[in-house]
Write a structure and sequence with these properties.
The complex is a heterodimer of chains A (529) and B (52). In chain A, 78% of the residues lie in helices and 0% in strands. Chain A is mainly α. The longest helix of chain A is centred in the middle third of the chain and has 50 residues. The relative contact order of chain B is 0.09. By secondary structure, chain B is mainly α. The chains are: A mainly alpha (529), B mainly alpha (52). The interface between A and B is medium-sized, with 42 and 27 residues.
């Protein structure tokens, strides 16, 4: 009976998604509709879509596991996601982006920057970076979604991957951004309701109030595993010791890397251009903020408190659990394990739907952005002919580009299914790092510093990209160790030993990129004068 | 506070709630605010401050 209900719920969900994709298809007439929804999307749908795209399955399962391991310090990421990712993004970046985007008739992030700097070279650079790096990042998200489909239906990886890909491909290709945003809104509502229920049920199950539960978690701080304590862990209700390796990882990689990196994510920026006035963005701020507060805030809070649950029920803390296979639990297995143990069976099904929704909403936006970069920014530049004819042909090309993007991600996901999680994690880091370091200074100056020259923006993008990549090859232990290039060349995993090897490259790549745009602007302005 | 000894943690809970409250206030306050001729919203607080 439980199995039947589970299948029925998932099938109803997929049918609803298909219907919303069809609705998007019916309302899509040309490339403007396909890329930015004709600039007339509803603000609530836009804000929900923004939030659902922002929060991927890894934000829930992965960072939820990080909360269980590191503790409540990860709540700074939730705050930054709201404050920088929504409040600053909507009010200071979104308003200007929408206005300039509408005036310059931009339909993609690459075209927006290209138009602001009057440079086709910049547009191509951004589009190529998106098209090269995003399929790898998308493959990582895809892998998470496929994993949950395998769990729900008990099917093979190959079949789950195929079904998952076909479902997303159908509504992205047919419905364009409208199909993507309608389905995003549905998925956002599922995630929101699921997290509210998780919070209520968790406290009911624990039998403690907010303060009592926090106090009880504080009281078991001495149960922190010795190896974690040696790295600076001081309990789940305290920040790690300042300048310890855990502190550097938490603050530079997780909080600043992800918190600031979100400002220049092409798939998020494009959403500002889908509404027709500033008031629509103002209306979306609260919806976006509340969505992140509930979805992210709840899972981080419950993730940290899961230690209390495990201590009460199993006499151990989350990171010390031994799985049925006999292996110690991995960070991203903690939340699914906790849900399976602490929640009723039917909620596990709803939670899987929530994770599936998180994966699908992020993935569909990624496919759409990659396709826009390839079909509109790269190939679209080559199309000539009458405007109307060109618009029609561009839509067909972008739809084909969606297919190519999905196929690329599919191949990467399939090829690396075994041991490639590390390579995929690496590509995700590179993409996030490059978005922040290469795109953010130029994007900010495009909005607020009219003096910035195209040479300076182009130089800043290159500096941000190169420094990020060099940092990951030679200085940041996590990526350098995976790549092994530094080891081969210099016989050491990283060139600078000690705590600095835990500092995320964004910490130095972003300021260098920002400095470049200022210095080169001053030089090139002087030459022009 | 709230059973959390480290101020670096409890302060983030307060900031998060404050952020949601600010977003609600902002949304209501500028619910019908349109762009002015320059493409700017003249009644936004930081714009007023500039004018003063």
């Amino acid at each position: 009976m439980e199995g039947f209900v589970m299948y029925a719920v998932v099938v109803i969900y997929f049918l609803t998604v298909a219907f919303l994709g069809y609705l998007g298809y019916k309302k899509t007439k040309d490339s403007g509709d396909f890329l930015i929804g004709g600039g007339k999307m509803n603000p609530i749908i836009m804000a929900l879509s923004y939030g659902a795209t922002f929060i991927s399955a890894s934000a829930i399962v992965g960072f939820g596991g990080v909360a269980a391991t590191f503790g409540m310090g990860i709540q700074w990421l939730c705050f930054l996601n709201m404050f920088i990712g929504v409040v600053i993004a909507f009010i200071f970046f979104g308003r200007k982006t929408r206005q300039i985007g509408a005036q310059s008739k931009s339909a993609t992030f690459a075209e927006f920057l290209g138009n602001c700097y009057q440079s086709n070279k910049i547009r191509l650079f951004v589009a190529v970076m998106i098209f090269i790096l995003m399929p790898l990042y998308a493959a990582a998200v895809m892998r998470g979604g496929v994993f949950f489909m395998q769990e729900i239906f008990g099917i093979s990886f190959d079949l789950a991957l195929l079904v998952f890909t076909i479902i997303i491909a159908s509504y992205v290709i047919a419905g364009g951004i409208k199909g993507v945003m309608y389905t995003d809104a549905l998925q956002a509502v599922i995630m929101f309701v699921c997290m509210i229920f998780l919070l209520i049920w968790f406290y009911k199950d624990l039998g403690l109030g907010f303060t009592e539960a926090n106090q009880a978690l504080t009281d078991i701080a001495d149960k922190v595993p010795a190896d974690y304590a040696a790295k600076g862990h001081r309990g789940w209700t305290a920040m790690p010791e300042i300048a310890s390796s855990q502190w550097y990882t938490l603050v530079t990689s997780l909080i600043f890397g992800v918190g600031i990196g979100c400002l220049a994510q092409p798939q998020l920026v494009i959403r500002f251009m889908t509404v027709d006035s500033t008031k629509q963005l103002n209306r979306g701020v609260f919806v976006g903020c509340l969505f992140i507060f509930i979805t992210v805030g709840v899972i981080y809070h419950v993730g940290a408190l899961s230690n209390l649950y495990f201590w009460k029920t199993q006499g151990t803390v989350a990171s010390q659990i031994i799985m049925d296979s006999g292996n110690p639990i991995k960070s991203d297995e903690i939340i699914p394990y906790f849900i399976g143990n602490a929640m009723p069976m039917w909620f596990s099904v709803i939670f899987m739907l929530c994770i599936l929704s998180a994966s699908m909403s992020t993935l569909s936006a990624q496919f759409h952005t990659m396709a826009a970069a390839a079909g509109y920014d790269i190939y679209g530049n080559c199309i000539t002919g009458k405007r109307r004819e060109r618009k029609k042909r561009t839509t067909i090309v972008i739809r084909l580009a969606v297919l190519v993007s999905i196929f690329l991600s599919f191949v990467i996901c399939y090829y690396f299914q075994g041991n490639a999680s590390q390579i995929i994690a690496l590509s995700t880091s590179i993409f996030m790092g490059i978005c922040a370091s290469a795109f953010l200074p130029s994007y900010f100056c495009a909005l607020y510093w009219k003096k910035a020259t195209k040479q300076a923006a182009y130089a800043s993008m290159w500096v941000g990209t190169i420094v990020t990549i060099l940092g990951m090859i030679f200085f940041h232990y996590k990526e350098a160790n995976l790549l092994g290039i530094c080891q081969k060349l210099f016989n050491v995993p990283v060139l600078i030993q000690g705590q600095f090897s835990y500092v995320d490259p964004i910490v130095y790549a972003f300021p260098l990129s920002a400095l470049t745009i200022i210095v080169v602007t001053m030089v090139t302005k002087k030459q022009e004068a | 506070m709230f059973g959390i000894a480290d101020p670096q943690i409890w302060i983030v809970y307060i900031l998060s709630v404050a952020c949601v409250v600010f977003a609600a206030w902002f949304g209501i306050k500028y619910w019908n605010e349109e762009d002015d001729a320059d493409g700017e919203i003249s009644s936004l607080p930081w714009k007023n401050k500039k004018k003063k």
